[in-house]
Amino acid sequence: xxxxxxxxxxxLTLLAACAPVPQRARIPTTWVPSPNFGERKPNFxxxxxxxxxxxxxxxxxxxxxxxxxxxxxxxxRDGKIYQLxxxxxxxxxxxxxxxxxxxxxxxxxxxxxxxxxxxxxxPDVQIxxxxxxxxxxxxxxxxxxxNFVGHADIAPRRKGDPGRNFPWKTLADRGFGLWxxxxxxxxxxxxxxxxxxxxxxxxxxxxxxxxxxLKLHYLPDDPERGPDPQTRALLYCLVNADx
Length: 243
Description:
This protein is α/β, with parallel strands linked by helices and about 240 residues long. It folds into two domains: about 45-175, Lysozyme-like; about 195-240, no CATH class. It is about 35% helix and about 10% strand. The chain contains nine helices and five strands, in the order H-E-H-E-E-H-E-H-E-H-H-H-H-H. A five-stranded mixed sheet has the order 3-2-4-1-5, with helices on both faces.
């Protein structure tokens, strides 16, 4: 009994030592903790492929101190899901990116990596696991359907993942991302395609790159560059889609 009596304070001390230290000002202040606060709430999910040939390679990359990249989740080719970063924390997956007015996507999103080298199809078991993960995330955080995007969408000048093999329509059919099936409705003559790109969320500071990212997501087999008639019609459909 005496041993238990002495062990409890020691255990409590150890637990307190493991608790995160509050982030404080670097000048003298008086700490009066308020109970009224909330944890970081993600509003986007950004999907990536790893570019690696095995999940072991991807795990080494995503946990390397020297490489300084991470994601909240990694979904293996076999459907196994690895969690690498607490959802309350800011993972380093988006890099220099922009979606709508948001220029710090790492702080407002969860990053999900898919074990895929970028040249192969995504196995059904992997996509099934991804859909289950996204459903769980969407239910808990109330993330809008339009806010499930790819790395290429938020960083069109730098990135091309999750790539042309990624089944965006399958995800959209389950409520993760926007989608329109052809034939698309004809836009009015005064329809501004560049403005529609921005309304969806694309950064049009490099408008050619934005159109390439849009086509990679929605029209991966369309080689035309820029706002050709099919792309204009697609954009008109997307900006009027249920978000």
